[in-house]
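FORM 7B: Structural annotation worksheet

SECTION A. Query
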Amino acid sequence: MWLHPEEVLLKNALKLWVTERSNDFFLLQRRRGHGEPTGRITGVKLMQATVTAPQQTYTKPKPKSDSFFFFLFVVPVGLLVGALDTVLDSNARVTPFRILLQVPGSQISWVIASGAAKEEVNKHWDWLIHNLLHSLSVFENKEDVASFVKGKVKGLIAEEVRGRQAAQEEDPAKFREALLKFELHFGLPSSEKLVTYFSCCCWKGRVPRQGFLYLSINHMAFYSFLLGKEVKFVIPWAEVTRLERVSTGLMTEAIRVSTRQRQREFSMFLNLEETFGVIGQLADIALRRLLDSEGLELDRVLQQPARITKRILEEQALREYVLALFRLPRSERLHEVASCSVWTPHARCHTAGTLYTTDNYLCFSSREEGSCILLIPLSEVLSIEKAESTSPLPNPVIVSVRTKKAFQLIELQDRNELVENLNCRLRALQWKMSMFRSRKDSKRSVSSPTPYYTFYYDTGFSDEEEIEEQVLRNTVNSEALMTAFHQSQLGTNGNKTEEQQKERLWDDLFMEFGRGVHMFRTEKIQKLAAMGIPESLRGELWMTFSDTTSELEAHQGYYASLVQKSMGHNNLATEEIERDLHRSLPDHPAFQNPTGIAALRRVLTAYAHRNPKIGYCQSMNILSSVLLLYAKEEEAFWLLVAVCERMLPDYFNRRVIGAQVDQSVFEELIRERLPELAENVPDLSTLSSVSLSWFLTLFLSVLPFHSAVCVVDCFFLHGIKAIFQLGLAVLEANAAQLSASTDDGQALMILTGFLDQVGSEQSSSPPSSPPSVVETGSSNGETPTVRHTNITALINQSYEKFGDLTVRQIERLRCRHRIQVLQAHEDTAKENALRVVTPEVSISPEDLADVYDLFKTEHFISLYWGDSSAAAAAEAAAWHYGDSARSYIERQYRLDRPQFKSLYGLLAPWPSGSNQHADTVANRTFTMLDQDHDNLVTFREFAGWLDTLYCEELNEKIRLLYRLHIPPALTESEDDPSLMKSPLLSSNRPLYVSLPSEMLTVVSDDGGEVKDYQEQLKQMLQDLAKEKEKDVEKPLPLMNQREFIQFCKTLYSMFHGDPEENDLFQAIATVTSLVLQIGEAGHRGQSSGSGVTGQEEAKGAGPAQVTGGADGRSAAESEWMVSYAQILASLLTEQALVNFFEKPMDLSVKIAEAKEKQYHQRAGLLTLQQHGTS
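SECTION B. Predicted structure
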């Protein structure tokens, strides 16, 4: 295959390659050890020769006539190279054949092609000989030969990429044709990868336009050419604010795409469901990558947009569904999906469904989602074997686990390949466990003797070892805080009896469905969980349902090391944790005690240290407190990990994106499932805002304690689906009262009153736990009037009425609603930026908002088509951090130098006669605005510069131009305006580089003078900060002759093309002569020793005192000086110049032109706006 040219400094290092064919420009080489006879020297003799005579082997060989040394050197090395290439991992192996591009007389070559087979590389060689070799002889400059060939090879690679991309589609020929049309019609860069396309109609009013909808990684584009009329437009995904499926009387069901400017409707798709899903996925992926890369986790494949294809999107959608259904770690990759049937002992039959295999799990779900779920961690598996296929049991596979149970799967297609892949992953995992786990665990998981298995399709009983393990498990669970602090307050005998009854029910269930993470999860478990899990089993079952047991066993000692590392660190997260420690279940004895508080502190601090992106978020303290009550400390930590990173992804961060997305999903579910309530309460935002705490705290902050813990039981069993269902049930129970409510406060009181009286069987008697997490707001007089609701009945009702809500539906809704939430945050960030900048500038709010959009688009263009490093730097710069812990305050776009120069060219008010000089001035402007020296310019700085050019008076414009031609804006080398060559001088306040003599004295023994020196530094910094606010009042540094010449050059370039060009050139010539005379006069005055008029200003300005080249000025140059006031006074003498700088300029017109040109200038886009209004 063709390769991007890569330099090779040593063409034949260590004789690893043999040249088989060559000419003046190309070499075809073969790797030693491939395709050559081994001779009489075996591998053993080779190793002996290498070990016993290393000096002979690697000593510089004698001439070729000496066959002995040639034999000793060549043959062993060839064998060794072949052996290494065979043993090495596939990612590190070197292809055995390659083609090099060589330039005569140069020691550098380039690898341009490689191949695993000689036939493949010969095809490339023949192409080079027949198509390029004869053309290369016409080049006189040999460097041009290399550039020409490398350009051709890159073109061939681009063509191969198109071909491979087309080959992945159902109809490669049609996709290739569509790809060429996409590039032709829209002129996007080649890196803008087309993902897929659809034939459809775009509606404009009542008129449909038949054409093609192209979906790429960053844009959706539509093209139509009908009856001689062309319609085309491009919509960046970053501008999409809403996606909907709509249906009107004029059109069939359509997809509506909304942006901040307008809406577009597309219909008449062959498969609207598929199209809508792909559009939603691409928009969601792009916005997560562009708008919230810091907060939202994105799959590794999707982090590389060039790899996204339609097939990848389908696989990703399925993977997201599997991760959500089984609540697996986000790092899991989906490998195989196969239809099969699993023997279910409780039903005494095989249950049909789908098997999903990931890196570390076997997952089974019945055809009806949720009726039967099985999760088997590979860490629990001992073997996966094929059994004999029979007519009743076709293609059976037996999966044996460590608890001496086994599962039978039948009707597996491609069974051999599936079992082979699973065993490969199983062996790799077992090797890893044997290497990194304790000797006891590794021996148990790898080298166990052949045991007797109790098959789940056989007896289903437990043996004595399992009973012994259960006793041990109960002993471990007894360390939970609930047992330690409530042993003497277990309540009445009735509560004890009820707990014992629940334990017996669960014991019976374990006998029937199994125990542990690989138990069958059915509707019977759901009913028992709704009744409330017994306290003695709650911690164990939470660990089982969330499969945190596997995480704990795989990371022995991890929590203890985290605690050790995190304790003693002070940051924003630890401060917030300390503030909330005593607010976590304050009525519970466990958290009125230092033991409970210390455990809670360790868990929260350890997690903040583990996941600094999340750190600590309010409501994590309440959740962790409940986890600590029923699980021991290390288990509670891993349960918290499971909740924050798997079960409630993106919930616990500074912007709580995940929770807001689910609130938006909840609103849509209310409209869909409770239409009468939605009709009577048009604004559902109140209900969604009230329900935010339901989702963040899993009802722990709004329900009585016993009732809330039952909700947590269901949450660990069914995930977020249980919270959605319960929320809908609560609203349905209060629908009549909510419909009659007149304001938000009344609706809040209705829901609060209802939730306060939701109880459990235990709450009828003295509770064994605190009655509530929140303060009760209702008076005693109101309590009897409220009908008592049992939590078990409410949960069962939620399952009966809303149990058809599936995980797949929730994931699809999340995908669409995440778009709206992220765009709402973007709107807020824009409002905050404009609110800060608007009082400081005179630009109209409308124009300022448009400038912000241009500023933001410039940032996105770098993310679209910049290289990976530039894109990463741009995205990192978009976050404004508030402390050393890098907890971001808000998203704040910033531009680097190339981005700024592009926007400068679009918005600068004055034309430039020389592109080179315009680039120079843009560089100086960027350096001047970059006051923090971080190579970034903020929107506030950019807007201030633009305001000076368009809205300020003449003297401020001249002042700005003056500053552009003195340090730090004017660097020593205009060709390389890097910060290393920028002077250390500030144009805001002159800084003396020589220290006063009293500050250079020797430090005394008591360190007193060191303290004085530090105090003086602090005072200097304070003075600098104060004087920065009074920038206008300070005199500017003087300008030397070289800088003034540059100043005049800039003025000449500004006047080029102006209608009054001749008058302006004459005026600036006059001013230049006048200023030069002033400078010469000052120069002669200094030389003669007479009084100099500008001496005081020079002294105040400071740079005149600096010598030695710190600012790039020589001693001779520093003698010729003029001041800003002298230049301004000289310019005011010429009316033509005054008229030029006072001429009003319309920023709105410039912004409109910039919107049309921005994509064209940066990316070669023909147009981004719609063509006309037709």
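SECTION C. Observations
Residues 807-837 form the longest helix (31 residues). The mean pLDDT is 77.

SECTION D. Sign-off
Analyst initials: ____
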